[in-house]
Amino acid sequence: MSDYDFDVIVIGAGPGGYVAAIRAAQLGLRTACVESRETLGGTCLNVGCIPSKAMLHASELYDEAASGKLAKLGIKAQVELDLDTMHAQRRDAVKGLTGGIEFLFKKNKVEWLKGHAAFTGKDTIDVAGKSYRARNIVVATGSNVTPLPGVEIDEKVVVSSTGALELAKVPGHLVVIGGGVIGLELGSVWKRLGAKVTVVEFLDQLLPGMDGEIRKEAAKIFKKQGIELKLSTKVTGVAVKGGKATVTVEPAAGGAAETLEADAVLVSIGRRPNTEGLALERAGLTVNKRGQIEVDHDFATGVPGIWAIGDVVPGPMLAHKAEDEGIAVAENIAGLTGIVNHDVIPGVVYTMPEIAGVGLTEEEAKERGEVKVGKFPMLANSRAKTNHEPEGFVKVIADAKTDRVLGVHIIASVAGTMIAQAAQAMEFGATSEDIAYTCHAHPTHSEAIKEAAMAVTGKPIHM
Ligand code: FAD
Ligand code: NAD
């Protein structure tokens, strides 16, 4: 009998950690997963992807009814917002899914060690006063909110994404600091429910990291929806008094300051890796300048037997990236070959319309060589037009010599669903011609991807 308590201990039960634990157990390894939260599923299921999508979905339906969009389709309804019920269905979604992970742990015989883990050595951790030894330890501790220096998050008036999901009433004016994914998704929720929303973004465009043309088009669409954008602007202070906030902003390049009165302020300027209290030093682990644990291609850290995945390692902070790394690390620990192709990780912003991209942006692709670009507007897609969803476009970027697809970027009502075929095509090394000659069902939004691929050679049909 070995003197190890487990073959694998995973620290953190987010999409990276719980998936790693389940896969390790499926592969016959004695596995435990440490989680300090009351429920499994990490940021994503408890306070991230899932509750935000619950609010995005409900608020979108409310907006369709309240703004008269449904009336235009011949559906007339008296609409009233019942925010308590909307919150209750959000909590229900979270409860169902987090409970589902607990069921999967039991089914796969993953032991949940409840409490906060801290290293006591290279192969030992302490959880709730008990010591555990494992042959392999996977750090999957995720991330949390990046604070804005000088701005205190009280989760009442000045909120992080967690507080912004739970506001008890619709704020008259919501000021969002940071025009990234969280700011735009949660800003959209409260705008649809009746708030005035102002997004203050330090850079000259929203959504850093996305394709330039997509970022410009997104800004146009959000402005049209009535979201006020203050680009190239920085927040220099937030003062809270009597349940209201005064936000001081000034041009990023310097200049006269102005103030914005707000009923709520959302701080959404990014997330940072969770390593506090882990006592990494006792295991001989260090973090890089961004606070991340560096790993190699196999997700191994510099310390043999210790691995790391998800938001705590470099790369996009996305649930599906964490999940894929979870599967790969478990397979590597089991002696198989676990691989994640980090060049093909789709990203989706779940606003209306949705914004999605995979692979290189046009700017990045052009830096590497000559490209051909095909574009197709959703306005010319029969299904989008019929559904009164004319906004946005699809853009396919291909290598000018080989025609291999390098990137696909989409703004469309269902861009998040459409991007999957682009990711799969790229995973298989497809050319734009491969996509153009793949039969797409009619009438679907996805036909716009086929047409954009045809446009790479200048031959779309419906444009
Ligand atoms: P996490 O999900 O952060 O999980 C880590 C877990 O480890 C946590 O439960 C934490 O309690 C636990 N933990 C940490 N330290 C310890 C310790 N020492 N001991 C015990 N337990 C510990 N991504 C998407 O792809 N799509 C989306 O739509 C999306 N929406 C989001 C919306 C919001 C509002 C937010 C905040 C994030 C969203 N994300 C989304 C990002 C996504 O949630 C993360 O990328 C993902 O959860 C990362 O997974 P992870 O397993 O690395 O870490
Ligand atoms: P982000 O990095 O997407 O955006 C932060 C924004 O804040 C950037 O545009 C940045 O320029 C701006 N900013 C930074 N400092 C500022 C300042 N002082 N004043 C004004 N603007 C400032 O970060 P986020 O929106 O907080 O999201 C965090 C992470 O969560 C992201 O990495 C994202 O991948 C993940 N997430 C993903 C989804 C999704 O996949 N749909 C949804 C929510 C969150």
Provide an overview of this structure:
The protein has helices at residues 15-26, 42-47, 49-66, 83-108, 161-164, 181-192, 212-224, 319-333, 362-368, 382-386, 415-427, 432-436, 447-456; strands at 6-11, 31-35, 111-114, 117-119, 124-127, 130-139, 143-145, 158-159, 173-177, 196-200, 228-230, 233-241, 244-251, 258-262, 264-267, 271-273, 306-308, 347-349, 354-359, 371-377, 393-399, 405-412. The model has no long low-confidence stretch (mean pLDDT 97). The radius of gyration is 23 Å and the shape is globular. It has three domains: 6-145 and 272-333, FAD/NAD(P)-binding domain, CATH 3.50.50; 158-269, FAD/NAD(P)-binding domain (3-Layer(bba) Sandwich), CATH 3.50.50.60; 347-457, Enolase-like, domain 1 (2-Layer Sandwich), CATH 3.30.390. It starts with 5 loop residues before the first strand and ends in a 7-residue tail after the last helix. The strands form five sheets. Strands 1, 2, 3, 4, 5, 6 and 17 form a seven-stranded mixed β-sheet that branches. A five-stranded parallel β-sheet has the order 8-15-9-10-11. Helices cover 32% and strands 24% of the residues. The protein has 463 residues and is an alpha/beta fold. The chain binds flavin-adenine dinucleotide and nicotinamide-adenine-dinucleotide. Flavin-adenine dinucleotide binds at residues 11-17, 34-37, 42-44, 48-49, 52, 116-117, 140-143, 161, 182, 274, 277-278, 310-311, 317-320, 322, 350. The site of flavin-adenine dinucleotide has 36 residues, from helix 1, strand 2, helix 2, helix 3 and helix 8.
